[in-house]
Amino acid sequence: MHDISIISIILTALLALACLFLILSPYFKWDTYLNVGVKGQDLVSTKEALLITLNELEFEYKMDKISHADYKNLKKQYEAEVAGIMKEEELTIAARVDRDLMAEVEKEIEAQMKNYEQKRGKESD
Amino acid sequence: MFLFANTTIYIGLAVAIYSLLIITLGISTKNQRLINSGKGGMIALFVCAAMAMLSLFYLLATSQFQYEYVTDYTSSELPIIYKLTALWAGNAGSLLLWTFFLTLYSIMIAFSRKMKGNPMVPYISAILLANAVFFFFILGFVAKPFVLLDTIPIEGKGLNPMLQNPGMIIHPVTLYLGYVGLAVPFAFAMSALILKNVDDFWIKMTRRWTIIAWLFLSLGNIFGGQWAYVELGWGGYWAWDPVENASFMPWLTATAFLHSVMIQERKNMLKIWNISLIIVSYALTLFGTFLVRSGVLTSVHAFANSNLGLYFLIFMGVAVILALYVLMSRYNMLKRSAGEFQSFVSKESSFLINNLLLVGAAFAVFWGTIFPLVSEAVRGTKVTVGLPFFNKVEAPILLSMMFVMAVCPMLAWQRSTIKNLRKNFLIPSILAVAGMVLMIVLGIQKAWAVIGYGVIILLLITHFLEFYRGVKARRKMTKEAPITALYRLMIRNRRRYGGYIVHLGIAFITMGIIGSQNYDLETMKTVSLGQSIELKDYRINYDRLDQKKEGINDIVYADVTVFRDGKKLGTFQPEKVFYGNWEQPSSEVAIISSVKEDLYIVLSAWEDDGKATFVVKVNPMMNWLWFGSFMIVIGALFAVWNGKYGNVTPRYTGVRKEVS
């Protein structure tokens, strides 16, 4: 006969409950994964990868692992890519600055409008 | 315990099916909560597998002979360590171990910090879960680990004495870690394809996983070889047995994969090839299991014949068909985005040649392994494909591979100019040829040995130059001291220099193989007490024959004194062990090891008048083989060690993120 002991039953029940908990608990939780931003990090890592590639290229050239012509061509190509990314970064920063500026201007306009409305209110009183 | 142990398997199966379905549903409805529930299920799966393992460990350790598995593989007098390791002595237990590793790897990926928020995770999880469903199904219905016997035997059948060896404790574990490990890059590759990501993100993310899986596969093969050498008493370490081949084939294709991914990372080439390679490697792990567990081939590895292999064959078939379907449906996309070769003499083309050789070697092993099956199906007779076939076919392929390995580091990317070739190869080639001439002058005249060692000299020189020039170039840029420059050079490019260490390890192994295969000596002699056997510069004096009892085992042993060039090396005891609970006796070999060679003494037979028959072998350069194996481990660990450098976060420019 199978040795179905009390301990065995308790352990089985605990296992089943643990599995149920693990499966069901996500239904009662707000998700935290969806807000991870990837874009900014992406730009940085591409730039980093390109800089490392440039470094590696120079190293390999010094070790005679790449011909002079290839070295020059590739170097130029990667440098152009880095320059492109840097430009894009600058634009992003500029856009952020613009956004900040716009927000400030908007705030000011709102404040002035409020002022104006208040004045008008007083006048109409 | 019966209820709990069995429940772990069946709850596991239910959870695996649920998680697979719910994640698939989550993907199609883009519902993050469903995905998270599936991920929770993956933890639950791991808990189930871990509990099942613990239950079986407990039953084995406490000798609960009412369980079939415990009776079949243990006995009460067995040392506790072997009672526990009997877990992977049979079908059910070893598949449970496999399942445990699979669930462990799955949660490591699903909850990895690096993969957080990545849309590939649900797909990878689903693929790994499909594997888990299969394994839990097998454990639940085909190879059940917790079956009760009708009558409880007083004693178990015991563990095959051949498996009672330290090498056998770790050999299966490392092999399974390798097998399961290959499922990870496979799952990543498939997910990337399904998501139409044809960049190299999946390769970068699985780089470490692949090297670790490869390392474990290597270790599995090495430990297996060492065990065969020490335990089987035939003086060899590799017999091209179907089961050895089963683990060697994925090793070959995984080695090819490890190299060709570098070309994809660097040059955006070989995309279809890489995906095909990982599909093949993954399929070969399942195919190997089919070979081992089906009993279709005769092998020294004693897994009970069962229909288990068939399930693996079916699962492999389905996996390969689905994988090929995904690959074909993305074929144009992969082709469109791939780079092209610019020259035949370049680093990238040498990588391709190395790949073709490795895959060719794998195919030759595959063909030799299944040929008996094919011939039986076609002609009705089972032909045995033995050692000579494999040695004849594999030796030239693997030697060519060594040549490519020697040449590759010095070749230039894009295209090698004449100037580059002259500068990098003139001196190494002259030295290698000079070495070959010197070998012939010194009396090494076997063609394979001369060519083989010549290639290895070339390899050692090119690799030395690689380190030397690296340090020189670095010092030019940084003005560091040589040692500092070497250290920084290596830790800043772990994968490359770890790879070179592995290459050197392979060179040592090859030297050991060439030496031990071409220059081994063997004699078999029957001698009376006091007489001696002479072989090469060894003299073995036969002093005594006696018998002793160890537990339930009877041991017959001979005392022999070994002299080398007249100098005493010591007294040794080759033994023959007769087991109380096992029919076949086994040989305990006396091995006298040195850097140059091993003296290998086997007590083969004896007569009542004290005469004994010994098999004595001299196996040259065996320690080179083991040292090379050690270097492989060091190199692979160096390559995957978590360093500050070379860990640029891979860029990810894939699909729009919806669920992760």
Report the sheet with the most strands of chain A, covering strand number, pairing sense and barrel closure.
none
Counting helices, strands and paired strands, the structural category of chain A is mainly alpha
Number of helices in the DSSP assignment of chain A: 3
| Unreliable runs of chain A | 32-41
Q: Count up the helices of chain B.
A: 19
Mean pLDDT of chain A: 75
Provide the β-strand percentage band of chain B: 5-15%
Distance between the termini of chain A: 95 Å
Q: What does this protein structure show overall?
A:
The complex is a heterodimer of chains A (125) and B (660). Chain A has 125 residues and is an all-alpha fold. Chain A has one domain. Chain A is 80% helix and 0% strand. The longest helix of chain A is centred in the C-terminal third of the chain and has 57 residues, at 68-124. Chain B is built from 19 helices and 10 strands. Chain B has helices spanning 2-29, 32-61, 68-73, 80-85, 91-110, 120-142, 166-194, 201-231, 242-267, 271-294, 308-329, 331-337, 347-379, 387-407, 418-442, 447-478, 482-492, 494-518, 622-640, and strands at residues 521-527, 532-535, 538-550, 553-564, 567-572, 575-578, 586-588, 590-593, 597-606, 612-620. In chain B, strands 2, 3, 4, 5, 6 and 7 form a 6-stranded antiparallel β-sheet that branches. In chain B, helix 17 (482-492) crosses helix 18. Chain B starts with a helix and ends in a 20-residue tail after the last helix. The interface between A and B is large, with 41 and 53 residues.
